[in-house]
Amino acid sequence: MKKRVVVTGIGIVSPVGIGKENFWTALKEGKSGVDYITRFDTEEFTTKIAAEVKEFDPRDYIDKKEAKRMDRFTQYAVAASKMAVEDADLKADEINQEKFGVVLGSGVGGIETLEKQHKRLLKKGPKRVSPFFIPMMISNLAAGQISIILGAKGPNETVVTACASSTNAIGDAFKIIQRGDADIMITGGAEASITPLALAGFSSMKALSTNNENPKGASRPFDKNRDGFVMGEGSAILILEELEHALNRGARIYAEVVGYGMTSDAYHITAPVEDGEGAARAMKLALEDANINPTDVDYINAHGTSTPYNDKFETIAIKNVFKEHAYKLKVSSTKSMTGHLLGAAGGLEGSVIALSLYEDFIPPTINYETKDEDCDLDYVPNKGIEHTVEYAMSNSLGFGGHNATIVMKKFKE
Length: 413
Known about the structure:
Blueprint: E1 5-14, E2 17-18, H1 20-29, E3 35-36, E4 49-50, H2 64-67, H3 72-87, E5 100-105, H4 111-124, H5 133-137, H6 141-150, E6 156-159, H7 165-178, E7 184-191, H8 196-204, E8 234-242, H9 243-248, E9 255-264, H10 277-290, E10 299-301, H11 308-322, E11 330-332, H12 335-338, H13 345-359, E12 361-362, E13 385-386, E14 391-398, E15 402-409
Parallel strand pairs: 5-6, 5-7, 10-11, 10-14
Antiparallel strand pairs: 1-2, 1-8, 1-9, 3-4, 7-8, 9-15, 12-13, 14-15
Helix pairs in contact: 3-6, 7-13, 10-11
């Protein structure tokens, strides 16, 4: 028999707040984390805005010496993991370390370290490149550092599927527990790619919003005047736990994970397939895995990037899967507030649906001003709502045609 899997802890480092409470309050109030980039001079860039994490001090969570040996994305991941473990009230004597694992997602890993060390190589030569360069840069080191610091000796892996990375990570962690290979999994994602090179690359693709005059209003998923996504950063970590293990220690349970689907468009390196067929199949597989009907779903946290193609084709995919029910369920994109955390987006949005189920609240899609005839669903415009949520879905769609969907439900014994 498949084991039941529940969410018992949430840790957040985000552009709208650090810590679960600050993050959730900001989303409920519809606050934007987008502003002008502060880390480097953007004078020569066409996009000058992003959703940076503010007021984060790694020394609040990590020894100063160790923090210097971590890229920013790893610092975020370790901090969020420590918060999630604390939120879950996990005690060392309640954990079998060999059944305690980590699956993390990251799209680009330590790109900030890569840029800095490459500059050092060019200016000062190969002997001045840091011996910590490789372990700071490689994407799996966030998961590695978490396992070392928290003593997680079970399954450990990193998923790199672009913007689907951490939804795939949550799905993989769910399946690991479901088949009995672990009792507890730390999962989610981390990203810290607001750097000159990454900004330049996305700008050259013309993927980013250039609404520099109105940073707070630049991320506008499903709005007719959307002009590209806004880069974000941070980490969101969920503690997934086998149900009996959670009940035996009296854990608080936010939600139950019940479905996971993943597919590939097999179509284009960056563009989604025009009818959203790949995304639709991922949603259908997740519903089948959860053994529920489309009409059971109350809320979808959409991928909703604020790009012309994604929002149109994801809307088509939702309508193809949910038929008439598509117009009855609630769909929102919290990227309107947080920006797009790339490989960490699914972790953040998985946390959102868990909290929505726990509190019966659906956060809004802010900056929704002008209706697009191609995007005609209920996107919970501008103001969050209290709404009974029994089943919720989160979609993540990545470059390369990667599609991942998870389904959670309100916990009932």
